[in-house]
Specification:
Layout: E1 2-5, E2 11-17, E3 20-25, E4 28-35, E5 42-51, E6 57-61, E7 73-76, E8 80-85, E9 91-103, E10 106-115, E11 124-126, H1 128-131, E12 135-137, H2 153-162, H3 164-172
Parallel strand pairs: 2-12, 4-11, 5-10
Antiparallel strand pairs: 1-2, 3-4, 3-9, 5-6, 5-11, 6-7, 8-9, 9-10
């Protein structure tokens, strides 16, 4: 626990988290989450997202095949949409819902966008809005450990080492 000056000059205790943590969400415990201070908002892997004729948003957390998937349908009449811009500039419209999560024993009601995170190492991403005023991030810390190395890059690096010029012409300069 670290003490920092708050807005009114009072001391506010902030818990320190690492670059990734385990969180609990909707009764599912020990879900790995990436802490991303470069992301404004938080996101969670959701599947089977639909809106019924009466305006109810329905979805399932995670997806079949994911160890955290329960198949439980979550319904909400209180939701919004957000336009999310990725680091490469692509924009997506996503539903945003408030879901309580637990980080380091602290219950936080946070706004999460629903996204297909099946290609990501972490099914949950925690952004600045969720962290602000509650947590400090120490990037030297890790709770989950490193995700497995991207096995797709190993053959690429071997090809690069053989002939950097040909590699550049084939992949970068096309």
């Amino acid at each position: 626990m670290v003490q920092l000056n708050g807005k009114q000059g009072s001391k506010v205790p902030l818990d320190v988290v690492g670059r990734n943590v385990y969180v609990s969400v909707e009764g599912v415990e020990k879900v790995p989450a990436k802490i991303d201070t470069g992301a404004d908002s938080s996101s969670i892997w959701a599947s089977d997202i639909e809106v019924s004729e009466d305006g109810t948003l329905k979805f399932k957390l995670f997806a079949k095949g994911c160890p955290f998937y329960t198949g439980e349908v979550i319904e909400s009449r209180e939701y919004r949409v957000s336009v999310i811009r990725s680091s490469n500039g692509e924009e997506q419209i996503r539903y945003r819902v408030k879901i309580p999560i637990e980080i380091n024993g602290h219950k936080v009601k946070t706004s999460l966008t629903l996204a297909d995170r099946s290609r990501n190492h972490f099914p949950i991403l925690i952004g600045r809005r969720t962290l602000a005023g509650k947590f400090l991030v120490d990037v030297r810390r890790t709770e989950v450990g490193q995700p497995p190395k991207n096995i797709k890059t190993q053959p690429l690096n071997e090809e690069l080492n053989k002939n950097p010029y040909k590699f550049h012409q084939k992949y970068i300069n096309n």
